[in-house]
């Protein structure tokens, strides 16, 4: 959530940020509830002090006066309990509204209504051209025996797939290639849990909206992660990090799960939009003054990884109306998919400023001993399935075989071309 002090001191800026993100939140009600809460706290503290004084008076009172003083003390206690109940209710209502306020867009973010107003920042390579009629990835993958959605459908249903043989090797090659690239840059590898509790998921900012996209295990009140960012970010909740240890960077590998509830009829066949996929995710904890620089760094890592694979792509600036609640700024990298004659998202990177850290109570201790909220950022290293799609389509040859990108060949058990079986 955002700092309540910002809402008190500059409510119009908060209202403007909410409008830019198409978020309908009653900021005036937040201000009113905040004022009411502070007034109730002041009254509660006054009654508590009065109760303590009256308790002392009862202890000192003569027998003849004690009954009257006990009765007066009882009335104060009853009033205090009623006031505390009002305070609890007001605080709960305020907290609910505060959690609906999205992170405000950074000043350099373009104000726009939706994804139609996103814009291209840079482009790497021209779209792939062929001197033959290129095939789509599913035709290639099924013919080569490396993608099987029919058998996955038998055991799991729609929107699942098997990666087989060289398809599976491509996944592990991408993991090794990413690790070789990222570890020298200070990223610590992590394999996190894929189930997360409500406090952690709520703290990361993914339950107030979009809950219908998340798998919930109701009996255990656990959620399946949609990205390892959600669990890595919460890993340090209720902790204080030392300034000298920042930035703290992780690269996490996990399976991810999404219901795709709002995607009926869209990319149903294949492995582009599935319920389960594997992903490598970068995550960074850093100081506020260098978080913009860290965001640029994460984007540069994404570009470096894609450029190393020699896959045509462009970088998109995401407008305010297409930002999720936690993100204050976001860039997407979209990779060229020849069969669709378009670019599709394979990477994104977001700065969430202090939004998630405040919810999760993750702080930093400065060298002078002062403590404040730190900043969190995330970025895709590889969404495995989508990257494999891009490789199959862009590296296909006339006979239906696939050239393995040079950057992945050291990890492919000697395979440089994936040929028909």
CATH topology category name of the largest domain: BirA Bifunctional Protein, domain 2
N-end to C-end Cα span: 54 Å
DSSP summary: helix tally? 12
Which parts are unreliable, with pLDDT below 50 for 5 consecutive residues or more? none
How many structural domains can be distinguished in the coordinates? 2
Write a concise synopsis of the structure shown:
This protein has 421 residues and is of the alpha+beta class. The protein contains twelve helices and 18 strands.
Structural notes for this entry:
The chain has 421 residues and is α+β, with helices and mostly antiparallel strands. It has two domains: 4-98, Helix Hairpins; 115-418, BirA Bifunctional Protein, domain 2. Helix content is 39%, strand content 21%. The chain has helices at 4-9, 11-20, 27-60, 63-98, 137-144, 149-155, 166-182, 198-203, 229-234, 291-308, 355-360, 384-394, and strands at 119-124, 147-148, 162-163, 187-190, 195-197, 216-217, 222-224, 240-242, 248-257, 276-286, 313-317, 329-337, 342-351, 363-365, 371-373, 375-383, 402-403, 417-418. An eight-stranded mixed beta sheet has the order 1-11-12-13-16-10-9-4.
């Amino acid at each position: 959530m955002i700092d309540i002090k910002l809402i008190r001191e500059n409510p119009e800026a908060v209202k403007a940020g909410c409008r830019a993100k198409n978020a309908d939140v009653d900021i005036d009600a937040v201000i009113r509830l905040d004022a009411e809460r502070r007034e109730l706290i002041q009254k509660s503290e006054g009654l508590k002090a009065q109760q303590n004084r009256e308790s002392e008076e009862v202890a000192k009172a003569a027998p003849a006066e004690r009954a009257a003083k006990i009765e007066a003390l009882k009335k104060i206690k009853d009033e205090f309990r009623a006031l505390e109940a009002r305070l609890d209710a007001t605080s709960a209502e305020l907290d609910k509204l505060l959690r609906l306020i999205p992170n405000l867009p950074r000043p350099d973010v373009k104000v726009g209504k939706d994804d139609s107003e996103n814009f291209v920042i840079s482009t790497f390579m021209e779209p792939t051209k062929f001197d033959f009629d290129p095939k789509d990835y599913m035709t290639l993958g099924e013919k080569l025996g490396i993608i099987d959605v029919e058998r996955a459908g038998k055991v799991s249903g729609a929107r699942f797939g098997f990666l087989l043989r060289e398809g599976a090797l491509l996944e592990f090659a991408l993991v090794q290639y990413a690790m070789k690239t990222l570890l020298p840059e200070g990223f610590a590898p992590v394999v996190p849990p894929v189930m997360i509790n409500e406090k952690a998921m709520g703290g990361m900012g993914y339950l107030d909206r979009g809950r219908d996209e998340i798998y919930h295990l109701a009996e255990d009140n656990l959620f399946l992660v949609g990205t390892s960012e959600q669990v890595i970010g919460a890993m340090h909740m209720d902790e204080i990090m030392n300034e000298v240890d920042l930035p703290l960077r992780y690269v996490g590998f996990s399976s991810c799960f999404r219901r795709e509830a709002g995607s009926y009829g869209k990319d149903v066949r294949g492995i582009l939009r599935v319920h389960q996929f594997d992903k490598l995710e970068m995550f960074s904890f850093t100081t506020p003054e260098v978080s913009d620089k860290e965001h640029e760094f994460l984007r540069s890592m994404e570009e470096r990884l894609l450029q190393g694979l020699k896959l045509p792509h462009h970088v998109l600036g995401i407008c305010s109306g297409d930002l999720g609640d936690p993100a204050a700024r976001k860039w997407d990298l979209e990779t060229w998919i020849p069969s669709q004659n378009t670019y599709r998202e394979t990477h994104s990177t977001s700065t969430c400023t202090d939004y998630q850290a405040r919810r999760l109570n993750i702080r930093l201790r400065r060298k002078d001993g002062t403590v404040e909220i730190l900043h969190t950022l995330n970025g895709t290293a590889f969404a495995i399935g989508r990257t494999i799609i891009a490789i199959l389509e862009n590296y296909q040859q006339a006979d239906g075989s696939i050239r393995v990108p040079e950057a992945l060949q050291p990890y492919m058990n000697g395979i440089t071309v994936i040929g028909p079986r």
